[in-house]
Prior knowledge:
Elements: H1 3-26, H2 30-42, E1 46-50, E2 56-60, H3 64-70, H4 74-86, E3 95-97, H5 99-106, H6 110-122, E4 126-129, E5 135-139, H7 153-175, H8 181-188, H9 201-222, E6 225-227, H10 228-233, H11 237-240, H12 243-252, E7 256-258, E8 269-272
Antiparallel strand pairs: 1-5, 2-3, 2-4, 6-8, 7-8
Helix pairs in contact: 1-2, 4-5, 5-6
Amino acid sequence: MPMHTFHMVRGYLNVLRCLGMFLPAVNLHVMEVQYGIAHLTRFGYIALEEGWNKGSQVMLKLPFSTMDTAVLNPVFKTIIRALLRLYPEIQQHLVRIQETQIAAICKTNSDNIKQYLNQLQKLDYLVYLPRQDKLFLTFLKPRADGDIWDWPQALYENRKTQQYQRLCNMMLYLNEQHRCLQQYLLQLFSAPADTSCGNCMHCKRNAHIQLVKSIVIKQFELNKTQNFKYLREQLDVELEMYLPEYIQQLLASEYIKIVNAEGPLENLTFVLQRPWH
């Protein structure tokens, strides 16, 4: 798995994990909360960032001269000297550190360094903020009046139903196979849709099928027995693909029947059973 894909999947799982922590409080499904947070992020109300790529932070609270005499543990002194050597500004403000780098200087492992830093923080010698593999949520705008977010449940359910209906209409539009797409869209918006556009893929398809129908009917009027291969030869290349579909319609409506029921479609022969309406 590529590294960027790994981070993306891990970040997504962290989102779901962190959302699950406060879902019982808001009484919503995890996907509803994730959808809401995504919208708040897109509209600039909040920012979500992952803490995995941000290192730990440390700031020394005492001057070095005072700390050098106050700290009696030689291991702690080694760590403090390593911090001062690697991060010169550590006495002015919080700086990001790498525990592995400090461990290499002190000839130990990073877990021990984390433990020592926590002990130094308890002794009030420094401030230590360990790296967190969690999501950080930052509010980007001033706190708004809570009343504007307190929607009545009925209004929320109504909006939810409207969004669901819109999604259903979109799926019906994508799955529509025969109707004019322009007519379908106009009907969705309660606009007049009396005539088809003639330009969408369904209108063109229906026009091609009608043309195939007229040619096939003409051939059966000339001769009640027709071969599929011969019928296909009477059509243009762009119309050939619609012939099997129309033949199936004629067979289903019992206008024609198959004379020889064996062999591929090209070798089938059909006979007219009843006159055209």
